[in-house]
Design goal:
The complex is a heterodimer of chains A (112) and B (111). Chain A has 112 residues and is mainly β. Chain A contains no helices and eleven strands. In chain A, the strands form two sheets. In chain A, strands 2, 4, 5, 6, 9, 10 and 11 form a seven-stranded mixed β-sheet that branches. Chain A has a four-stranded antiparallel β-sheet with strand order 1-3-8-7, with no helix packed on it. In chain A, a hairpin with a 7-residue loop joins β9 and β10. The termini of chain A are far apart. Chain B is an all-beta fold. Chain B has no helices and eleven strands. In chain B, the strands form two sheets. In chain B, strands 2, 4, 5, 9, 10 and 11 form a six-stranded mixed β-sheet that branches. The model of chain B has no long low-confidence stretch (mean pLDDT 92). Classes of the chains: A mainly beta (112), B mainly beta (111). At the A-B interface, β5, β6, β9 and β10 of A face β4, β5, β9 and β10 of B.
């Protein structure tokens, strides 16, 4: 069972470059999330998608955009990367908004 | 002040010891989650609870809604339990995105 798959696992970017983090789930979940995890801080929600076709801002959305391409896929885009966006990014999904969330393995992103 | 506080931040135990990790929160909640983050980084959901107590193998989670407090217990700890344990709460009446995470408790179990 693949669960939640994130690509890439590691990425190094230069300031100002753009990139898209991909996330796909095979559990037929309606809800999907993007978090970032920084040292000394808890996971923080960037964006979420309650269902296919909808997206909403979380706690720290600035500098990011998302696309819920279909029920399976939820991508996170950095249009102009900044060093402050160096972090570990996690995608998660849940069947409904009250259920447990299933996490991907994370993407470690460094911006120089 | 953080809405979700965990204690201790770091915990070292000997194999076989009984371990308790605490989580206190300051908001009204509809559910509380315990998660485990492995040394390699992967995150796994352990429990979701809104009242009482849940048990899975050597892990027990309890919650006291009136006191706004939850505990995660590990019985007969083992080195493979070494991980970061994260408490998260879903605010009651909030939007779907309102899952607030604690900073985690890093547990190291020595053989």
């Amino acid at each position: 069972n693949a669960g939640v798959t994130q690509t890439p696992k590691f990425q190094v970017l230069k300031t100002g470059q753009s990139m898209t983090l991909q996330c796909a789930q095979d559990m037929n979940h309606n809800s999907m999330y993007w978090y970032r995890q920084d040292p000394g801080m808890g996971l923080r929600l960037i964006y979420y998608s309650a269902s296919e076709g909808t997206t909403d801002k979380g706690e720290v959305p600035n500098g990011y955009n998302v696309s819920r391409l279909n029920k399976r896929e939820f991508s996170l885009r950095l249009e102009s990367a900044a060093p402050s966006q160096t972090s570990v990014y996690f995608c998660a999904s849940s069947e409904g908004w009250v259920g447990p969330q299933h996490f991907g393995d994370g993407t470690r992103l460094s911006i120089l | 002040k953080n809405e979700v506080e965990q204690s201790p931040q770091n915990l070292t135990a000997q194999e076989g010891e009984f371990i308790t990790i605490n989580c206190s929160y300051s908001v009204g909640i509809s559910a509380l989650h315990w998660l485990q983050q492995h040394p390699g980084g992967g995150i796994v959901s352990l429990f979701m609870l809104s009242s009482g107590k849940k048990k899975h193998g050597r892990l027990i989670a309890t919650i006291n809604i009136q006191e706004k407090h939850s505990s995660l217990h590990i019985t007969a700890s083992h080195p493979r339990d070494s991980a970061v344990y994260i408490c998260a709460v879903r605010k009651s009446g909030g939007s779907q995105g309102n899952l607030i995470f604690g900073k985690g408790t890093k547990l190291s179990v020595k053989p």
